[in-house]
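Ticket #4471: structure export looks truncated?
Reporter: QA, pipeline team
Priority: medium

Steps to reproduce: submit the single chain below to the structure queue and open the exported record.
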Amino acid sequence: MRSSDPSNHAPTTRTPRTAAHSIVLEGMPGAGKTTALQALGRRGHHTIGEYVTVDGTPLDHAAHPDHEPDAPHLVNWTLKATLYREPTFGGPVFIDRDWITALAWGHCFGRLPERIRWADTRLRNRTLQLPSRYVVFDLPPHESLHRRGNAVVPSHPWADPEVLARLREFYRDPVGTVTAHDRHLGADLARLPITHIDATRTPDQVHAELAAAVGVPL
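Actual output as written to the record:
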């Protein structure tokens, strides 16, 4: 079965759309993003999971696509953009990862320029968008592996400490890393507030810092 991507044919503009009141949680696997998102949901905040169905229902981890091929992941980031495009939530919406994850993945494998072209095309035709803010959860590779324990899939690249080190390299300076390849997209990202959180601390400490950064109780 063939499917077409309408984002390839949409009109283009140099200025990407910025979604109001949208806060994306990004960073290392095992750093506590999903736990924080669940805590926000329990507080009554609007949340969007890492992988979702067309109506926004979060997928269980077992239903996430394999790390290869790329297409289901790229479609997921585009789909999620439609779920918070308009300010219909009456408050902030918190998102577990967005399209910048695709750039981080590309950086791990020498494919960042390719992923930048993909993202830039869709930002310009507005099938992707910029959030209001990124919150990046930082964690050393060895701690990422330790926390995920038996959940680590040996065949997945994020089971490899060297790949995780490159992933962390991207997340510690996403603006600089992207700017080195594309100054326009780097400038788009540089306009956004990016908060880095040390996720080696206790969940209570991490949640307190997240709450202070985004201005909501957690």
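Status: closed, not a bug. The export was complete when the record was re-opened. Leaving a note from the reviewer for reference: The chain has nine helices and five strands.
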